Every structure is written in structure tokens, then in C-alpha cells.
């Protein structure tokens, strides 16, 4: 499945996690290639040329520019991108010709127990059976259950971004707002304490990333739907 994987951004949160998994799983450590911001363009070009699968772990806001910079040498490689929002990759005509395998780790490695880790994989560029092979390989390499995201209608990246508008953008906004609402109260319930802990976990992350997550194009629709459900809420469970 992978002969010479390249981890781009191996010193970051996701890159470190993926590199550690590859080191445990690959037969030989010297088959694994790495670059970060300290490498020269010549270093990057050399390692891209040698790689067959590229784990792209640069910040969300730098992803498109990195791909455009090295596009000519990336053609023919499988690019495992990590972006929290996917549409800009699949819809940017300048990136035509690149082959994306989209990954989304649904947890922060440094703050999540092994038992609570899971991830998603999909591709609108690769055959389904090939993606299934990556699901199996990555589940083993990273000791993380990986689910194949299948879209019943339309591109899978549409479904991914719609789901993340709820499970990331909406959840983050609601938890942060709830935590602010109860922050000055002395009588904290157990549930209230957990809300504040979860909001603190969100706030301890990368603020630039979380601002970009709030720019998910499906968020406004989710906010309107959530408000409607909140307005008609009853205890009827």
C-alpha cells in the first residue's frame, strides 16, 4: 500500500501523530521521508520525488498555497490531506490533476485517549476499493478506527463539510457560548462543569484553525436549524 510515505509538517500535532504510527508500522524507518518548514525547496522536491504517498499536515490556511507551489511534482502522487474543510481543495480548478485522499482525524492526538480516537477517510478521486485498502492500512498503522465516508448522492466532500458544520463549527460555538453563560455562577452542576471543560479544550487549540472552522459555508443553515429546534424544545424523551 505504501512504499515510501512522506510526512509534510512532521513537527506539528497531526504530523507527529502520523509519523509515530508510521515508525511503528513500517518495516524500515529509513523508508519514511519527512520535511517541515526548516527544509529547503530542494529538500522538499527531492523527497516528493521519492514518495508515493504524501501526508500533508500543514496548517489549513497554508494547504492550498503549498499544493500550488509544488503541483508539478505532486501529479501522480496520493496526497493524504488533513483539512477540516474540504471543498476548497476539490473545487479549486488550479488543483486539477492532483489526487486527494481526504483524511479527518476526529480528535486531537495530544488530548485524547486511544479508546476515544476515530477518523474518516474518503476520496472523490480514487476508486472505492483502493480507498478501502487505505482505511484498513491506516487503521492498523495509526491504531485508530478509520471509517470510509460514503456519500449516497453527490461528491463525498459535500457530505463531509455538511457533517463538520454540525460536529465542529456548531458544537464549538454552542459549547463556548454555554460556557460563557455559566462562567460566573457559583453553583456549578456536574453537566455544567463538563461543558466548561469541553469549552476549555476547544479554547486551548489553535485559534486560527477554529476561526476557519467557523467559516464552514454550511454553518448558517445549521445555526438556523438549531435555533428552530431550541425554540420548540420540550422534555419529551
Explain this structure to me?
The chain is an alpha/beta fold. It is built from ten helices and seven strands. It has helices at residues 13-25, 41-50, 60-69, 71-74, 87-91, 128-141, 156-182, 190-203, 207-213, 219-231; strands spanning 5-8, 33-35, 53-56, 78-81, 99-105, 119-122, 146-148. A seven-stranded mixed sheet has the order 2-1-3-4-5-6-7, with helices on both faces. Strand 1, helix 1 (13-25) and strand 2 (33-35) form a beta-alpha-beta unit. Helix 7 packs across helix 8. It is globular.
Briefly say what this structure is.
This protein has helices at 13-25, 41-50, 60-69, 71-74, 87-91, 128-141, 156-182, 190-203, 207-213, 219-231, and strands at 5-8, 33-35, 53-56, 78-81, 99-105, 119-122, 146-148. The chain is an alpha/beta fold and 237 residues long.
Strand content: 5-15%
Low-confidence stretches: none
Spatial gap, N to C terminus: 47 Å
Q: Name the overall outline.
A: globular
Number of strands: 7
Mean pLDDT: 95
Helix content: 40-55%
How many distinct helices? 10
Multimeric organization: single chain
Helix/strand class: alpha/beta
Lateral arrangement of strands in the main beta sheet: 2-1-3-4-5-6-7
Main beta sheet: 7 strands, mixed
SSE string, helices as H and strands as E: EHEHEHHEHEEHEHHHH
Radius of gyration: 19 Å
Protein traits:
seven-stranded mixed sheet, globular, 12% strand, alpha/beta, 237 residues, single chain
Amino acid at each position: 500500500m505504501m512504499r515510501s510515505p512522506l510526512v509534510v509538517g512532521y513537527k506539528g500535532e497531526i504530523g507527529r501523530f502520523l509519523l509515530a504510527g508510521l515508525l511503528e508500522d513500517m518495516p524500515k524507518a529509513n523508508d519514511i521521508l519527512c520535511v517541515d518548514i526548516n527544509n529547503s525547496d530542494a529538500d522538499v522536491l527531492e523527497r516528493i520525488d521519492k514518495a508515493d504517498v504524501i501526508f500533508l499536515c500543514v496548517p489549513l490556511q497554508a494547504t492550498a498555497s503549498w499544493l500550488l507551489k509544488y503541483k508539478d511534482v505532486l501529479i501522480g502522487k496520493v496526497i493524504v490531506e488533513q483539512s477540516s474543510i474540504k471543498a476548497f481543495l476539490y473545487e479549486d480548478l488550479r488543483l486539477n490533476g492532483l489526487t486527494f485522499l481526504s483524511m479527518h482525524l476526529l480528535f486531537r492526538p495530544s488530548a485524547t485517549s486511544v479508546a476515544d480516537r476515530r477518523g474518516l477517510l474518503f476520496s472523490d478521486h480514487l476508486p472505492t476499493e483502493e480507498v478501502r485498502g487505505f482505511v484498513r492500512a491506516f487503521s492498523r498503522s495509526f491504531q485508530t478506527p478509520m471509517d470510509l465516508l460514503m456519500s449516497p448522492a453527490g461528491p463525498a466532500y459535500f457530505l463531509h463539510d455538511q457533517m463538520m458544520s454540525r460536529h465542529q463549527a456548531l458544537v464549538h460555538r454552542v459549547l463556548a457560548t454555554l460556557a460563557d453563560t455559566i462562567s460566573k455562577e457559583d453553583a456549578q452542576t456536574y453537566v455544567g462543569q463538563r461543558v466548561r471543560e469541553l469549552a476549555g479544550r476547544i479554547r486551548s487549540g489553535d485559534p486560527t484553525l477554529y476561526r476557519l472552522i467557523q467559516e464552514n459555508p454550511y454553518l448558517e443553515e445549521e445555526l438556523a436549524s438549531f435555533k428552530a429546534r431550541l425554540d420548540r424544545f420540550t422534555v419529551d424523551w
